[in-house]
Amino acid sequence: xxxxxxxxxxxxxxxxxxxxxxxxxxxxxxxxxxxxxxxxxxxxxxxxxxxxxxxxxxxxxxxxxxxxxxxxxxxxxxxxxxxxxxxxxxxxxxxxxxxxxxxxxxxxxxxxxxxxxxxxxxxxxxxxxxxxxxxxxxxxxxxxxxxxxxxxxxxxxxxxxxxxxxxxxxxxxxxxxxxxxxxxxxxxxxxxxxxxxxxxxxxxxxxxxxxxxxxxxxxxxxxxxxxxxxxxxxxxxxxxxxxxxxxxxxxxxxxxxxxxxxxxxxxxxxxxxxxxxxxxx
Length: 281
What we know:
By secondary structure, this protein is mainly α. Among the domains are: 1-28, no CATH class; 29-67 and 81-164, no CATH class. The chain has helices at residues 21-32, 57-65, 77-107, 114-130, 136-280. It holds the Pfam family zf-CCHC. One of its GO terms (molecular function) is zinc ion binding.
């Protein structure tokens, strides 16, 4: 069975070789206008262009086996020669049809179908044996063609195996590269996860530290606010105390003046008393 791939008839991809549209078209044209390839024509006479091809090799064999020329009366020597020539000509034409049909079928078969080629060739050779014609050179070329097709199929199979081996090696290299890359990325991922964990811990530590700092700041702000309020009150108290101090100072000054005046009055009284006593003596 031919593999799906590049068709060696139309050089296109995507269809089975035996279903090639170019191949089918050429077969139809070949069946309409039969001809013999120049590769074999040196051993065979020309095929008349108006002679229809036999539809099947077995039909050709039956046609040759059942060929019964009719000739009324008893033939003379000339008639026997004509009859022999007619029979030989008919057999030759039938042989040409068999050979042409075989060439047409072999030409458009895939080299991978060399077993089918051998089977078709054996059927044709059996029919040619029945026709009593010399087809030795033709058979030799046919066998050479089939042998070449078989060799080509083996080469194609070897190429496919080589392609498979190359693909296997390529896939192994790709797998090894991917495994190495997977190991590297796994290690990097582990390191990255450790770094993420460490950074998360550091983030939590710093967040807690920040919360502590914010708490301390709030406490100090509250304390500063309280101190400011207290300072305002103390300032007011200091102002009031200063006023009272000034008033007290003034009172003390007045008291000192009164004390001096009192002392002066007492001195004056003592002096007057002393003078009065002095007058008595």
